[in-house]
Amino acid sequence: AQSVTQLGSHVSVSEGALVLLRCNYSSSVPPYLFWYVQYPNQGLQLLLKYTSAATLVKGINGFEAEFKKSETSFHLTKPSAHMSDAAEYFCAVREGNQAGTALIFGKGTTLSVSS
Amino acid sequence: ETGVTQSPTHLIKTRGQQVTLRCSSQSGHNTVSWYQQALGQGPQFIFQYYREEENGRGNFPPRFSGLQFPNYSSELNVNALELDDSALYLCASSHSGGGHNEQFFGPGTRLTVL
Q1: Do A100 and B56 touch (CB under 8 A)?
Q2: What are phi and psi of A62, to 5 degrees?
Q3: Taking all residues of chain A, what is their mean pLDDT, rounded to a whole number?
């Protein structure tokens, strides 16, 4: 079975600082990986996805992630944090074939941004 | 283009009762997945429906059941509610049959079991 592990349940940064949220995956096949963001009392919004096309993936709101097979990692970064980035972030791996698929999520990382 | 919608927004039930949650998929999507998100946790896959049939199931007991209708909307039914069923229930729609099956999530239904 595939799984993801998010290191650090809570990350705090200052506005303008680098954001780094860590995600490691476990998969026996080339994975499809995703980062989602969840604002309070809302559903999940897709930030970016890795589908084997390119190892550096750019997403919305200035976020990007790099797939590193040797490290089984897919860390999320943003060069300069903004107050509006404060939210819960989830890394997920897709399990299953094309007909039936489930997303397996990590436990999430809460990002706090201070002024 | 209408996104994924869910109803109701909030729901309070007592232990032992039954509940039905509803989801309307995004236009053009034929697959619906349901997830349970307990407080402070990541979403957990309950099951997926494609062409009105269950097409994959997570580690949830049979008292969690669902339906998908010809218009691709879906229901999640939970019988004999337990306190641990209190959670945010998320519905996600996608299009199976091509592409990477990106899942688009609704805002969720917050279920509280007393």
Answers
A1: yes
A2: 80, 5
A3: 92
